[in-house]
Amino acid sequence: MPLCACGCNVEVKNKFILGHNARVANPWTGRDWKFNKGKKLLGNEKNPAWKGDNASIEAKHQWIARHYGKADKCEFDITHKAQRYHWSNKGHTYKRIREDWQMLCPECHFKFDGRTNSILSDEIKNKISNGLKKAYASGRRKPIIMTPEIRMKISKKKREK
To answer: Are 33 and 57 members of one domain?
Structure first.
């Protein structure tokens, strides 16, 4: 009797056992498929698609979470409680070593990265506003038209604070 085409060496009546990932030929090349049954996938540096330091920031965040676990506390202030936590890079160099990363709650992470208005310096705020003015002037960005309704909503929000 013939053996299963997937390489499991089980005798079969047909070409392969139902449920096995076996195809006789690759539809693009016409050659037999190469099966990796029982072989482990190449991880990290051994993988031919490994980018090392050229990987994206998102990929490095995923790598850290995979190797050191999901962030589960705020290392900046232990008393902070949040529904989720982030891995934050300390020096913005994104090296793959634990000492270069910290677990933070979203609030501390945004403050650490300088993504909140309260932490931005006046110089940075001026750069942002000048950049927006140029974008509006060039037509790349459309300005918000201040209608009386929008003004009322904004003033209501300010009064509530």
So the answer is: no
Count each helix (H run) and each strand (E run) in the chain, helices first: 4, 2
Convert the pLDDT of each residue in 137-154 to its tens digit. Answer: 666 656 566 677 777 777
pLDDT surpasses 80 at 33: no
**pLDDT score, position 110:** 84
122 assigned to some structural domain: no
Phi, psi (deg, nearest 5) at residue 89: -90, 130
Q: Are residues 30 and 58 in the same domain?
A: no
Domain match, 102 and 57 both: yes
Please give the pLDDT value at position 49: 81
Closest C-alpha among 60, 9, 53 to residue 35 = 9
* Domain assignment of residue 81, given as a range: 53-113
